[in-house]
Amino acid sequence: MTFTSAIEARKIVSYSGDYRVLKEISLSVPEKQFTVIVGPTGCGKSTLIKILAGILIPDAGQLLVGGLDYHRLPEKRLLEIKKKNGFVFQDSALWQNKSIFENLSLPLRFHFPELSPSAISAKICESLEQINLMDSINLRPAQLSTGEQKLVSFMRALITAPGLLFLDEPTMLVDLAMRRRIVGILVREKRRETTVVTVTHDAEILNALADYFILLRDGFLVREGPAAEIKTTTDESVREILADSISTFETRLSPPPPVVE
């Protein structure tokens, strides 16, 4: 299957202090596909997705968007790209000193300064109604559950109708009911052919939603390719990474063992 690349990474290197987190990573992210980045804990997944999203600047290598070096683009072009991108952070990353309304209004005010206050309010209300949190519109993030904060972070990322959505562990630290709601949002975005890039250990996302895989280990790219090809490979290193990712997620979901007195 032939893909059009939404993003390309060429020999990306990233350091944390003296430690080299990513080691000359070169890969392509296919357009209008659901791409999943997997690998053992500490292999550089979160660093990679932030570099692909333009949030972190690599220490070496190039990030190409539309064939152009992202970090050499003029400011006006960068803003056009960022306007079409959304990012959901692992810890939601909401502004704690602002209300839910204010958190959702920030990307709209920044990227669409022409919108009237009433238009912004309408978009925010529509977003909160989708996740049944209209009653929380004037609350601060700390007054919501972890799962509710995650839902709000999804709406903040989606409120500008991005064509490219980045997700860092979207179903981590939420209960099963909230996880189902989040997966429902992802199913909707997949149907819309949004280009999605996610770091996840979630077995359902890996099995049911992934179109393309990027596999990392120890900061190296082990393999990338269409999901059908990766899932049927006989390469033991690839099979081990996938199996470990799924078992790690299932362990997180498992209830603690009963206390025996």
Task: Describe the model.
- The chain has nine helices and ten strands.
- Helices cover 39% and strands 25% of the residues.
- Helix 3 packs parallel to helix 5 (146-158).
- The protein has helices at residues 45-52, 75-83, 100-111, 117-130, 146-158, 176-191, 203-209, 227-231, 236-253, and strands at residues 5-16, 19-30, 34-38, 60-65, 68-69, 85-88, 164-168, 195-199, 212-217, 220-226.
- It has a domain at 94-161.
- A six-stranded mixed sheet has the order 6-7-8-3-9-10, sandwiched between helices. The chain has a four-stranded antiparallel sheet with strand order 2-1-4-5, with helices on one face.
- The protein is of the alpha/beta class.
Q: What's the short version?
A:
The chain is an alpha/beta fold and about 260 residues long. Helix content is about 40%, strand content about 25%.
SSE order and pairing:
Elements: E1 5-16, E2 19-30, E3 34-38, H1 45-52, E4 60-65, E5 68-69, H2 75-83, E6 85-88, H3 100-111, H4 117-130, H5 146-158, E7 164-168, H6 176-191, E8 195-199, H7 203-209, E9 212-217, E10 220-226, H8 227-231, H9 236-253
Parallel strand pairs: 3-8, 3-9, 6-7, 7-8
Antiparallel strand pairs: 1-2, 1-4, 4-5, 9-10
Helix pairs in contact: 3-5, 5-6
Question: What are the salient characteristics of this protein?
Answer:
alpha/beta; 6-stranded mixed sheet; disordered C terminus; 4-stranded antiparallel sheet; 261 residues; 25% strand
